[in-house]
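Bench log. Compound arrived from synthesis this morning; before running ITC I wanted a structural hypothesis for how 4-(N,N-dimethylamino)cinnamoyl-COA sits in the protein. Inputs:
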Amino acid sequence: MNETMLRDEVLIDKSGAVGVVRINRPQALNALSFSVMEKLVAALEMYDQDAAVGCLLLTGSERAFAAGADIKELEAATPVEMALSGRMELWDRLRRLRKPLVGAVSGFALGGGCELAMCCDMIVASETAVFGQPETDIGTIPGAGGTQRLTRAVGKAVAMEMILAGRRLGAREALALGLVNRVVPSESFFEEALALAAAVAAKPAVAVRLAKEAVVRAGDLSLEEGLAFERKLFYLTFASADQKEGMKAFREKRRPAFTGS
Ligand code: DAK
């Protein structure tokens, strides 16, 4: 990374086939201002379009993944400004990323920070990670999916307690409740998440993309619809060169040479 990037509030870096996006606003515990959100969504979309990237990785600092939306920026907002500002659309664009997104989460993941973590497809948490939705403390409610994604992830009872009573989940509790994939020492959370993202990036791109799409849709569809959707995507993989190569390599007892097509 060069110096200009180090001065910026969102840093980008390619590590092999992983596109890394880092929130870098330490003075505000990585609070997600409009400008940070715009930059981080644009950076993720750029890597989503980059044929040399197979997986995306989103992280913050060891102290804070993100301590929420920027409260100081929101304080005076009117409903009309909120609706017309394009803020919601930025979050919608995160949902449309086609490549898997791994979150490397350490320290505070509160409010919009927790919601951002939940936009990731997998989360590697440092043992210091803390997840919470404290919006009611400042007179509002989660606005970027918290009431919906948290409830789906940890169940109604825990989601209610987090949103209504300010309960925070430590990393181990988050793991036990299925909110994160694994908990690792804080010294190595980024490297562990990078290794997971690199493992995904090494896999055949078409299959990975379609598999993500199918799993994401599982939350919305009935079992009948989901199975039919999965079947169509499954058939589609047989149009990819990597399916032919993967199965041929298995038969020939050699490592496959995937091309991403
Ligand atoms: N916004 C702005 N600044 C923040 C911040 C935040 N969310 N969190 C921390 N900071 C700033 C502090 O103001 C302080 O700055 P200075 O006063 O030094 O200038 C600096 O970061 C260090 O924070 P503290 O001094 O407070 O540090 P502590 O270790 O004592 O406490 C803390 C850490 C994370 C417990 C505390 O900072 C805290 O409670 N922060 C607020 C957490 C919170 O309530 N988060 C939820 C915010 S509401 C939307 C999408 C999403 C959202 C809204 C709309 N749309 C799509 C429209 C989301 C809303 C939210 O997230």
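What the model suggests: Residues 34-49 form the longest helix (16 residues). The two ends are 30 Å apart (CA to CA).
ITC booked for Thursday regardless.
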